[in-house]
Amino acid sequence: MILENAFISIHEKAVKGTLIYENGTVYIKEKDIDPEITITSPFINAHTHLGDGFIESVPRLDVKSLVGPGGFKAKMLQITDREKIRDSIKYSIKIMNGEYISSFFDFRESGMEGLKLLENLDFGNITPFILSRPAGKELDKTELNELLKLSSGFGMSGINDYPLHFLEEVSLYAKNNNKLFAIHASEAERENIDEILRLNPDFVIHMYNGSIEDFEKLIARDIPIIICPSSAIFFNHKFDTGKFKLDGIKIGIGTDNAMITVPSIRSEMRIAWLYFSMEAEKIIEYSTITMQRFTGKPNNILIFNKKPQKVVRDPFYRPDRFLKINEINFE
């Protein structure tokens, strides 16, 4: 099978050219063309909070009051029946399975109780990367060990929500156990990027209020930034979208809180195109290959018989074909 004039975003590389498929082996010949079709790895939802999808009426509050420690969301989680929360998580998983994603990264609050909400759930064809969080702000090594046994690492709310030494210990625990450490950064206000970098994060979330210098430091460390366009609109974050187009930047795309928007990565890609004014090809790259450094390379690809912009701005357009792959060679 020969597929010409394609934009191809697979296995940590985005190129234009021709894809040749022979018995599970893929050969890619790069060529500067105007793409007529789009070939991608399965999509990756780089940031979710699935646990709050049960909230059906969300007040218009600032970030801290709505989703910060002790805020509206935290209070709702405390008073809501566990099975109701689990049902909403199941609904979110169903949505994601319908969009041919390979993985998602969920920030799981509330310590062990938060992790237990995911017990025995059927994730279908999706590999979940669950980033847990200690229940309090005091270092409890027993708790950290238990959390890491059942999760892919730690996902923290923000550098100003905890003592820095506590976050350093949590990060070190993750690194010593070959697990991930991620943190929200400079969402509603600029935060100290040097303190954030002391935590050695694998990736950071948001960065809307980071400076150009902050972005350059993240780029120098090859640390991906995860953007969540729907929540950025909801919270009315004002920022220069040009920062997210700097040379060398690595970006992932996530859907953030399920109470604000359903976890549809395809819809989020469309909003990134509208709100962040990003090129369609870049958006596809960000939503497929940026996070493969953590997930590994998938063994299948999606073929859309449409130009990249059509794939991005039409979240209801589904792949025309799927191919199983064993090996990929770029020529």
Fold and architecture overview:
This protein has 331 residues and is of the alpha/beta class. It folds into two domains: 2-40 and 299-330, Urease, subunit C, domain 1; 43-295, TIM Barrel, CATH 3.20.20. The chain has helices at residues 63-67, 72-79, 82-97, 111-116, 141-149, 164-176, 193-198, 212-220, 229-234, 265-275, 280-288, 292-295, 308-313; strands at 2-10, 13-22, 25-30, 37-40, 43-49, 101-107, 127-132, 153-156, 180-185, 203-206, 225-227, 251-253, 256-257, 300-304, 321-324, 327-330. The strands form two sheets. It has a nine-stranded parallel beta sheet with strand order 12-11-10-9-8-7-6-5-13. Strands 15-14-4-1-2-3-16 form a seven-stranded mixed beta sheet. α4 links the parallel β6 and β7 (127-132). α10 (265-275) packs antiparallel against α11 (280-288).
Summed up:
The protein is of the alpha/beta class.
Query: What characteristic shape results from the CA principal axes?
Result: globular
For the biggest β-sheet, the strand order reads: 12-11-10-9-8-7-6-5-13
Helix content: 25-40%
The overall pLDDT, averaged over residues, is 95
Distance N to C terminus: 17 Å
Show unreliable segments: none
Report the biggest beta sheet as strand number plus sense, adding barrel if it closes: 9 strands, parallel
Tally of strands: 16
What sequence of helices (H) and strands (E) makes up the elements? EEEEEHHHEHEHEHEHEHEHEEHHHEHEE
Structural class: alpha/beta
Indicate the CATH architecture of the largest domain: Alpha-Beta Barrel
Considering the protein shown, what is the CATH homologous superfamily of the largest domain? Metal-dependent hydrolases
CATH class type of the largest domain: Alpha Beta
Number of domains: 2
